[in-house]
Amino acid sequence: MRLTMGQALAKYLAAQQSEPGVPLFGGVWAIFGHGNVAGLGEALQGTRETLPTFRGHNEQGMAHAAVAFAKAHRRRRMMACTTSIGPGATNLVTAAATAHTNRLPVLLLPGDTFASRFPDPVLQQVEDFGEPSVSANDCFRPVSRYFDRIVRAEQLITSLPAALRVLTDPAECGPVTLALPQDTQVEAFDYPDELFAPRVHRLRRVRTDVEELAAAVKLLSSAKRPFIVAGGGVLYSFAEGALDAFARKHGVPVAETQAGKGALAWDHPRQLGSLGVTGSAAANALAAEADVVLCIGTRLSDFTSASRTMFPNATLIGLNVAAFDAHKHGAVPLVGDAREGLSSLSEALGAWVAPSAWSAKAKDETSKWNVAVESAVRPTTDGLPSDAQVLGAVNAASRPGDVVVCAAGGLPGELHKLWRTRQPGGYHVEYGYSCMGYEIAGGLGVKMAKPDAEVFVMVGDGSYLMMNSELATSVALGRKLVVVLLDNRGFGCIHRLQQATVGEEHNNLLGGPAVDFVAHARSLGAKAEKVESLAALPAALGRAMAARETSVVVIETEAKKSTAAGGTWWDVPVAEVSSSAKTQAARAKYVEARKAQKLVR
Predict the structure, then answer these.
(1) Cβ atoms within 10 A of the Cβ of 525, count?
(2) Strands 106-112 and 175-181
(3) Is this structure's pTM higher than 0.70?
(4) Contact status, residue 567 vs residue 417, Cβ threshold 8 Å
């Protein structure tokens, strides 16, 4: 079949399936320029019936939408993104890093300079004085799980299957970059018909090793204070049912990471809530006493482990499909699929149940935490509302099946602690990379994955100002969002961190005139209104939910207030030498706190 390289690439993507009859790729996001319009752009025009093309307003934003689409589909479906060379390509790098950190699949197809090098240097070409094969696209190498530059049309025959292997592999999953020189995109080759045969990519379920399983069973069966950390791998494995059954049968309390939140409903009898720096008091209290911790599908980031102070007396078991993560923090590795691993563990444990006193403590701590949550979100009329009070109103307005989306600033911490998730997929917070600007674009990706859900995007004014262009895209595509914009006139989260580590206010809260966010959102085609009080918020949310178009609800919030309940230490270094008494005091506290870090188990 004689096709250009661009045509072959588009045809191959259209033939991939996540299950029979369901396309693996939900489409291609494209902003065309001189690096891709004549090659891949021409090819996508020919496949638009089976592989739709969507146009974003910012390359980073459209890639974030693609990342969110994959996360909402629990990595079973994904999207591709193509750009011109130069700034169009490098705008994708932040989104690639976001996907890489969060282990999410996205196929990046940036245009590149000429493979022939005849017209060098071309418009937007970044020249390396000592290495002519280098282009701006080499920036993708450290943030891609697989990188290739296709300099001959026939290289697709080997590179595309390799790329799909990485995109669909549970352990290696992450962004793939195929840099496409613009002259190679239009070159033709006689491709074998077999390359374009439909292929179903099924979820691989790796079974655990017999000896590793035996070691984990031995530890758990002797535990007096067992504890489970549910990470994102629980959801990507579709293991929430297995986790529910394991926790109920064996009486083990469960705490959730940001990525794992929603694996169990908030009112599940074994649910402790969030864990770590933004954790519930219940989860953190039991973690401090736990003797064996089963870590399921988690990267054990510093927020989860409280910078390695969270489990002072515990032996960790790492149940993870990626050996890289299963061995972290000196854990006893149990490499395998979360669902299959939990089932094997449960079967091998037989009738073993955690001590009743431990279960009773978990129940008591959870009851006290639920009271703290209700207190934090309870409306008051005293001054500007807190982030917690606003999210409480949004949570109350949401319905089962709806999704909350967030990414950066103080809101993810409040959501992790306080949002009551009813079912898997209802909580979508990007906090591996904590990428400001992900929120609206991510909400668009979630809406494309879940068109029947109400998607609530909670975003601070800082993130909104950093990346809001995909608001216009959501309007243009008819993918309705409910955006709740919390305006605290600056970077409130970092302001609070600065006060704790430096003691002096500097460069975080904005001065000058207030931004008219309502006028701005309306100029992008959205409906918008500002509410003057917390009491007016529920009615405004009702109007936004009833609207057919994307709606933005703006409310001013208090920058210096966050939920005091829950949480724990986070390792943020404080200056060792300073003339400030406040910084000196903060340093003394920091040095003392570091003594609790468990660097080797």
Answers:
(1) 14
(2) parallel
(3) yes
(4) yes
Name the amino acid, one letter, at 145. R
Extract the tokens encoding 413. 């911490």
Contact 430, 407 (CB under 8 A): yes
pLDDT digits (tens, 9 = 90+) for 113-122: 999 999 999 9
How many CB atoms lie under 10 A from the CB of residue 418? 26
Q: Please determine, for residue 425, whether its predicted confidence score (pLDDT) is greater than 80.
A: yes
- What φ, ψ does residue 583 adopt, rounded to 5°? -70, -40
- pLDDT band at residue 258 under the 50/70/90 scheme: very high
Q: Enter the CATH code of domain 2-200.
A: 3.40.50.970
CATH number for the domain running over 210-369? 3.40.50.1220
First to last CA, the chain: 58
Domain with CATH 3.40.50.970 in the chain: 2-200, 378-556
Fold of 378-556: Rossmann fold (3.40.50)
Rounded CA-CA distance 385/396 in Å is 16
Buried b / exposed e over 278-302, threshold 16 CB at 10 Å, is bbbbbbbbbbbebbbbbbbbbbbbb
Query: Concatenated DSSP letters for 386-420?
Result: PHHHHHHHHHHH--TT-EEEE-SSSHHHHHHHH--
